[in-house]
Amino acid sequence: MDVNVPDARLMPATLAPPAAFSGRGRRFAWTLLLLAVAFGAVPAAIVGTGSSYLAQIAITTMIFVILSASLNHVTGTAGLLSIGHAAFYGIGAYAAALLSTRLGLPFIVTLPAAGLIAALFGFLVALPTMRLVSIYFAVATLGIGEMIYVVLLNWVDVTRGPMGIRGIPPISLFGWQADTLLSRYLAVAVIAVACVWVLHRLTHSYYGNALRALREDDQCADSMGINVERLKIESFVVATFFAGIAGALLAHTSAYIAPDNFRFMESILILAMVVVGGLGSLPGAVVGALFMIVLPEALRDIGDYRMIAVGATMFLSILLLPKGMLAEGTALGFVRRSFSRGWATIAGGTPVGWK
Amino acid sequence: MVFDVFFLQQVINGLSIGCVYALMAIGFTLIFGVLNVVNFAHGEVYTIGAFVGLMVITAMAPPLLAVVPLVLAVGAVSGVGLERIAFRPFRRFTDEASQKSRAMREATLLSSLAVSIVTREIMMHIFGGDMQGIPSGYLLQQPVAIGPIMVASGSLVIFATSAVMLGALQFLLYRTQTGLGIRAVSNNQLGARYVGINTDRTIVTTFAVGSMLGATAGILVGLYDGAISPHMGFAPGVKAFVAMVMGGLSSIPGAVACALLLGVSESIATEFLSSGWKDLITYSLLVITLVFFPQGLFGHGRERA
Description:
heterodimer, A: mainly alpha, CATH 1.10.3470, two-stranded antiparallel sheet, B: CATH 1.10.3470, two-stranded antiparallel ribbon, 12 helices, globular, cell membrane (chain B), membrane (chain B)
């Protein structure tokens, strides 16, 4: 990792390189580029082609970007392998769907409510399971995920069981309704970008360093004064909150949800996105989500052989790049140089860590 | 009331399901023991066992006793192939940093998952996604009366086969050089290599043994239920995985006990609940077990990594 990039603003003015070449200039360049793709190129393509198919893929991708970024927060950064993430996605989706169809609440209420309800469930799940380590924790999340699925499927009075919930109103905000494909995409994209930004600030900070420390060795981190139990619970709750948000977006954009959207295989798909992108790397999680959503669509032409090709590509990508497309070390260096506000320095200008 | 005949029958049905879970859970346990990685493709081995059994039956109509060795052989071959494709390439990183890296461990887990997706889809292409019936001459559903209880002949066959296989496994693990190697590698892979054990070969053997058990479970269930499909391996795979973890990961008796417990509780649960809620019992048992026994029922304490 590049440790010799001092923060331009902490240097004496005479030493600071010109703004265009400094970390800040680059930071704006990357931020602008990403925003331009999300809010310029993709909407232009949707309008230009007028294809509802393209818009649908773009919306799905954005939702899965939230899911894989949030799973990366708990599994990649904090090291708690969760294989029940789709269940919290489901809780968020059902919370939003029920609140808006039964109680008629507006989107501005159902979106945060879905996140909070999922986070509440996440908290309740985290309390007893946090002392489990490694694979035991993973299996506990698998079990809880399947329990939630069974409840969604069988509690017919509330969830309508396998029939699912229909007629969920589209995203609307103070009278403005996202009823065209473009506006629906834009609304989802704004929320997705906001979620990724929050996760970016959480991961790429001292707080994120503490999470990485407990992932590497929680007993050691504990003895260094890090409140391991609390951090683990926090990271799990944060991840489930964002999964709930993603669920609410799914409910409001597709207008129909059913328990099968939130099965075990969906959790595994999200995990695959994180691992293919690079475990512990937030840019990797985003790239992985793009890859795993766009690839099956790009392979649509080969019809029945599509899933074989998807499995084979996934296998090859893991085989050739076992640490992911954007491995954690590379990704942290990249984020530091291009997005973060650089290094905190101690006297003498020695960089010590995130600001 | 407790000695209600119907209740007893449910327990026996549950035990036979539990035996199937146990056969699969042992495969999981053996493989997890030597590699410390969950083999997500184990359910596919089970499906392959069932389909190869069906193909042999429809093509040649051999006696039932001849089907079993064939399925065992196919299981061993698929286990070895699986190890070669999905696991061996990831052992090329031998430096300490890679071995401790969580990304590497999760990558191996997902490579087995990717292989299982490809295998399942290929089977879907060959056999179609629908249920396939087993020729009725081979079905193991004739009722057998034992006193007042009626038991399907399949249950008895499953009990007998499981008992034989468990006995053989005990013999293999505790009475042979190969078994000693397997136990040594699961205890400490590096240490086993230092004392001259060929760890690669031991791992391959473990996969072969575990997959033989899994494939046998597949054909037994096929004959017992009378229908097989490319998706049949998923549910028992997850249940067996759960049983392995409840039992404490490295303990074969623990895995077997928990598999039987899961099977019996599932089949009793269908008496009180509609079948949709049956899985809730399994997973509640899992979560309750883990809350009170964080290392599983028969697991040992946490080691320093």
